[in-house]
Amino acid sequence: MPIVEVSGTELHYVRGGDGEPLLLIQGMAATHLAWGDRFLSELGQSFECIAFDNRGMGRSGRAEMPFTIVDLAGDVAGLLDALEIERAHVLGISLGGMVAQELALAHPERIHSLTLGATYCGGPRGQLPGPEVAQSLGAALASGDRERVYRAMWEGMLSPTFRAEEARFAEFREMAGGLPAPRAVILEQIRAGGLHDASDRLGEISAPTLVLHGTADRIFSAENGGQIAASIPARLELLEGVGHLFWWEQPERSAVLVREHALAPA
User: Fold this and answer.
1) Residue-range definition of the domain harbouring residue 23
2) pLDDT over 70 for what percent of the chain?
């Protein structure tokens, strides 16, 4: 099992594909399984993909708490060091998009291109999840009932159009329950994400940046993507009618957008 020691813990990672390195940073409550085989397979045709489990999640080591988004960005820089990767394309989604923002600000020399998906930058104009979805997810987590958590995630993170085909839930549930996601670590991720604020620093990001956001995202509304794109500035690509897990709903299209952006001439 591929493991590296970083920041006093161990990070589990997987890598595959052929091409320039692409580092993928997952979001809250997610492990590397959340990327899905179809999305990784598409990306692997053009990149060597490196996906990992954040501290305390999946097969990675325990998380020293409390931690911040800056701490998680330090983990990512340490992972690049351990793998002897000088520069990489970076894709961060949701909480992982916040981590990618801090990585790009602290280590601009490490990033060829940056893609930020379904994420949030904080500040007075940043919009956190609305009360309905926040209460549903919070109550499910507090209940300790895993099936209730999976169903709340399914309903909160995927669009009604995608969820209309109920048979898709089985694959989603298998992914969500495939590896450990300790409740204490998830709650700490939520706390760290709520405190994240890069809103007045985004203009310092020098890497070519693409912002992807579904218009039916109930976790972070698409207005967040617009704010981020305007502040860097970056190209904004809105995915009409798509929910928070845009790469799960549209893996091929999402991979094409990442690929075209990352491999575009400078």
Assistant:
1) 3-130+181-262
2) 100
